[in-house]
Design brief:
By secondary structure, the protein is an all-alpha fold. It has a single domain, classed as Orthogonal Bundle (Globin-like), CATH 1.10.490. Helix content is 67%, strand content 0%.
């Protein structure tokens, strides 16, 4: 079986376009930065085995981005409240946070948008497991 880079690129692009659509932006760079920041925040909140299982459903290019700078010695991070989660996501996009996340509401909306877009490639059961790994106050950010 041949490895088809074009198919992998297409799969990654389709998912990024879904994120951009949910974010209501045409700026694919911004969508990519936000997607990466939220993915890394989710990844860091999960125990290692769950993080690996979750990643298995991502397009291969996004798997590489997902695992970039992953430190299994520092996870899962303990974030218990909404404010801590918002700040954690903001810090994951430190390079452009001032542009992408000017208000806390933008981070909450971005978290919901990414979670919604992930439904295109991640099973409902896997997303439910991820959601359940988050504290109740963080889970409530997805229910607006």
């Amino acid at each position: 079986m041949a490895f088809n880079f074009e198919d992998n690129k297409k799969d990654a692009t389709v998912l990024l376009q879904a994120v951009a659509e949910e974010l209501q932006t045409d700026d694919m760079n911004k969508a990519g930065r936000i997607f990466r920041a939220v993915l890394h925040a989710i990844r860091d909140r999960l125990p290692v085995n769950e993080a690996i299982h979750f990643s298995s459903q991502l397009p291969i290019i996004w798997k590489g981005i997902y695992f970039d700078q992953y430190d299994t010695e520092k996870v899962p991070v303990k974030i218990r409240d909404r404010e801590g989660w918002i700040n954690y996501i903001r810090n994951k996009n430190a390079f452009a946070a001032n542009n992408d996340f000017q208000q806390d509401d933008e981070i909450m909306m971005s978290f919901r948008a990414v979670f919604t877009a992930l439904q295109k490639c991640v099973s409902k059961g896997q997303l439910q497991q991820v959601k359940q790994s988050l504290n109740q106050e963080i889970q409530e950010l997805l229910e607006v």
